[in-house]
């Protein structure tokens, strides 16, 4: 059974109803560009609206985080990833969710209890120490670290939030050492948020009308741990990518990871109906595709996305349960490549003008952008 099936089955057997999961595009009226966490589509229900499927839910939600963009290229960060989630909408509390979390990780995923460690919210001037979580972990017998900032979760500056308890797995070679905040061989796998408050604009907290639980477990990271791999890219989930991309293009490890991540994410974003553009979602997509092309063309400007085999498009669309016409997704990526290539050619011609044979200042950047449509980062890469 796959990891996501095991997760969904475990919670279904405990009376959670599977949700279908939403696309990366939040519901109309939501100010956020993309779905960034599993709870995001559930926000109104965490705030008290009755959910049509009941008070216990389980699901798999694709998410996109651009806050982690600079970290992509390391072993664990991805722009698009999948979050396995379980929710109690005012039903059970933290003791129950942590006990189930421990049971699933140790008995069903086979992680040794000795390789687990947890963190718990230690309290601050607004919210007291999370006693219930602390007592639960003490009775289970795991090492516990108390923190404040690291154990508070919110999806933005305002809205539902609360203290959380995070479960870490030891990934070092020898016996576990140190603690999650002092040794990064402790990798966070599962966050259990006691979503009980709403943060207002002025920073104040108001208790929500119901005490919720929102948990999130990153699928790719869990696969890495369970398969005993050192990076998410080495897992089964990335099999066609890590086989095919090195055959197409020779890149160093970090660039190869960025190319794989950004191409896979671009396919998923296009598959959710976004086209490249200069604003909003389309701009995020455009930046991802252009970063790939910049890396590919650094050593060989004949490289082209036209070489990507349909197998990668098929695998990605199947994995993310998307129905877009794959030839259209491919066409959109290739059209963006042509547009970027033309823009670069035009940029080179304009920048070869004598006026720009000097260190460029603000007025040059403004002129190049407004008159010639050359964004600053593109100009910098051409003159750099
Ligand atoms: N919302 C929490 C997170 O994204 C738990 O799902 O980590």
The parts where pLDDT drops under 50 for at least 5 residues are: none
The count of β-strands is 9
Question: What's the rounded overall pLDDT mean?
Answer: 94
* Radius of gyration, CA atoms, in whole angstroms: 23 Å
Fraction of residues in helices? 25-40%
| Major sheet size, sense and barrel closure | 9 strands, mixed
Order of helices and strands: HEHEEHEHEEEEEHHHHHHHH
Attached small molecules: serine
Shape: globular
Q: Strand percentage, roughly? A: 15-25%
Q: Helical region count?
A: 12
Would you kindly provide a written description of the structure presented here, covering whatever features stand out?
The protein has 384 residues and is an alpha+beta fold. The chain is 39% helix and 19% strand. α7 crosses α10, α8 packs across α10 and α10 crosses α12. The radius of gyration is 23 Å and the shape is globular. Bound molecules: serine (SER).
